[in-house]
Write a structure and sequence with these properties.
By secondary structure, this protein is an alpha+beta fold. It contains seven helices and eleven strands. The chain has two domains: 117 residues, Trna Endonuclease, Chain: A, domain 1; 104 residues, GMP Synthetase, Chain A, domain 3 (2-Layer Sandwich), CATH 3.30.300. InterPro entries: SseB_N.
Length: 255
């Protein structure tokens, strides 16, 4: 990566380029189209990272922090002011293009503007963004009640796509593909439900990993696909005790 020390004096306010990037980020919170526009802009924008001030290694090493959910992430910032607000005497601030940062840290988890409720980018999302320019959009919905049964009319590509995405995700123990239908007298159009049994510390990553894999394939699909995660330490819910419901993916435990 080509990184340089920012030259703007501390406390001088954001530049017009930084302000435009941050405005785009705020718009992206509520719009899929704006989100795509933001990440396209981010690739060519200058962002800011923290490096250890005393590090003399030949290869630049970046500071990580422990996210409240229990994983390590590299923080990066849309403006020098935001990077300075989160810095300390132990770090120096470096500027780099978004594209160079993602390429140079490929395989790591990053978080943009962590002090302002920013967004986490998991390794699978970074790889897909770099390779295809695509970033899946994930929406959290309030839990809904419905009955489930074995999926009967799912597209042929769906189960293999789910299983393939989970091959190296050792935090997912199994996955089910179910069909949802109305219950309790409430009319509801049948849909599909992906049920992941996961280490709960990685619940969001697991959901976004599968969504990243299948969302590009769903453009012509006329059915709603929901996704739920289940804590691997807890018994499976009663709805999955049907002997006809079998997992489409099960991780083989090494002995």
């Amino acid at each position: 990566m080509t990184m340089k020390q920012p030259s703007r004096p501390r406390g001088r306010g954001t530049t017009s380029a930084e302000a435009a990037l941050e405005a785009s980020f705020e718009r992206a919170r509520d719009s899929a189209a704006e989100e795509r526009a933001f990440f396209k802009r981010l690739m060519d924008a200058i962002v800011y990272v923290h490096a250890p001030v005393s590090d003399n290694a030949r290869t630049t090493r970046l500071v990580q922090f422990r996210h409240p959910d229990g994983f390590d992430a590299i923080p990066f910032f849309t403006s020098l002011d935001k990077a300075q607000a989160a810095s300390s005497a132990a770090v120096k601030i470096l500027g780099v293009s978004g594209r160079e940062l993602l390429i140079g840290t490929r395989g790591a988890t990053l978080m943009l503007n962590p002090n302002d409720g920013g967004v986490v980018l998991y390794p699978e999302e970074v790889a897909t963004l770099l390779d295809t320019g695509f970033l899946a959009r994930v929406e959290r919905l309030a839990p809904a009640e419905f009955a489930v049964r074995p999926a009967q009319a799912e597209p042929a590509w769906l189960a293999p796509a789910i299983s393939g995405s989970l091959e190296h995700a050792d935090f997912v123990s199994s996955a089910y593909l179910l069909e949802t239908h109305s219950s309790g007298g409430v009319e509801q159009r049948p849909g599909l439900l992906i049920w992941l049994v996961v280490d709960l510390a990685f619940a969001e990553r697991a959901a976004r990993l599968v969504t990243t894999a299948i969302q590009p394939l769903c453009s012509d699909l006329d059915v709603i696909i929901d996704l739920a995660v289940h804590d691997v330490s807890q018994p499976l819910p009663a709805g999955l005790d049907d002997p006809q419901i079998l997992p489409i993916f099960t991780r083989i435990k090494r002995t």
